[in-house]
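A brief tutorial aside. Many learners find it easier to grasp structure tokens once they have seen a single protein encoded end to end. The record that follows does exactly this for DoxX family protein. Read the sequence first, then the structure, and try to relate runs of similar tokens to stretches of the chain.
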Amino acid sequence: MKNITPFAQLFLRLALGIGFILPVMDRFGWLGAPGAPNVGWGNWATFVDYTNSLMPYLGLSAANVMAILATAGEIVFAILLIVGYKIRLASIGSFLLTLIFALSMLFFAGYRAPFNYSVFVVSASSLLLASISDYKWSIEKKRL
């Protein structure tokens, strides 16, 4: 295990990317209906309600806008991380998005929620990925 950094960063990129894609698929109902096993939301309306519970100071229409922005961010970050393009930028965006999510959970869902779902770990992992200087096995590396 002389130098595991290239494998570790690839593994982290894939884990983060897939970790963003699966919840997006869930909120679009592609993983099953609400209440089905291993389904968190099952449809967009349930996800917007959850978003509103984490941002109770916003109205439902503003929560819908925030849900759209979060989902768009997750889709973009997932694709960029998985294919290995603009990794540092995607990692910083992922860090900021998940930090906001974690803090919202902390204040409005209880202190255990962001830790039960490891949201602070995802946020810190994204920040760590942004600090790596060389992204082996990426489109960025191939372009040089």
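Self-check: Residues 1 and 130 are 23 Å apart (CA to CA). If you spotted this yourself, you are ready for the next section.
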